[in-house]
Amino acid sequence: MAFCTTRRGLMAGLTKLCVALLLMAAPLIKPAAGASQPQDVVRSFYGALLSNMRDGHTLGESGRVARLAAMIDRTFDIPAMTRLAIGPSWASLSPAQQQQLIAAFGRYVAATYADQFDTYSGEQLQVTGERPHGANVMVETRIVKAKGDTTRLDYLMRQDQGGPRISDVYLDGSISQLAVHRSEFHSILQREGVDGLVMALNRKVDLLRNVAKAS
């Protein structure tokens, strides 16, 4: 009986010690690298946009594009977005053609954001929440101009090996930008093929740059 009592006391002591050690270690445990939350990814991207806007005049159009390009490459799943924008015909393209389209679409996305967020006039880029979207997450945001006008933009986030990345953008919470692109791209592909679509995307980039230089 004495042995059992002693043994129970020893086990209880060891249990308390283990719990204490776990509690001490808990603050030292950090999330794995790349384990960002969807809202954090969008906040980081909006921080880069605000920085670009504040430095817009100094950077110029080419500087804004250059600064955003790397951020967009990390934040947006450009290969997946390009594939979805092309649609079913993607599978019939050669790897070289796919890479051409991915590069052209990435340049177009960077140029579009550099053009739309070119200068700072008191705008607020707010992340307001998130909601489930099938197996993915939709991050809800709004852009508030100095005069109070508000635009809603939602970002569809898909889990990647490196963490959540943007795979589509919804205007007013309902209009998928990829759906708009898919309709336009399909028409160009039917008429002019892959080379024609690459040229069309490059023309859009040139047009955005010319507009930015003229403003």
H/E order of the elements?
A: HHHHHEEEEEH
CATH class of the domain at 38-125 and 178-214: Mainly Alpha
Give the proportion of residues in helices.
Answer: 55-70%
End-to-end separation: 91 Å
Assign the structural class, choosing from mainly alpha, mainly beta, alpha/beta, alpha+beta, or little secondary structure: alpha+beta
Describe the strand arrangement of the main beta sheet, using strand numbers: 1-2-3-4-5
In this structure, how is the largest beta sheet organized? Answer: 5 strands, antiparallel
- Kindly state the mean pLDDT as a whole number? 85
Number of strands: 5
Secondary-structure map:
Elements: H1 2-25, H2 38-54, H3 56-75, H4 78-86, H5 95-116, E1 124-133, E2 136-144, E3 150-160, E4 163-171, E5 175-176, H6 177-214
Antiparallel strand pairs: 1-2, 2-3, 3-4, 4-5
Helix pairs in contact: 2-3, 3-5, 4-5, 4-6, 5-6
Describe what this molecule looks like in 3D.
- By secondary structure, the chain is of the alpha+beta class.
- The chain has a domain at 38-125 and 178-214: phospholipid-binding protein (Arc Repressor Mutant, subunit A), CATH 1.10.10.
- The chain is built from six helices and five strands.
- It has a five-stranded antiparallel β-sheet.
- A hairpin with a 5-residue loop joins β2 and β3 (150-160).
- α4 crosses α5 (95-116) and α4 (78-86) packs across α6.
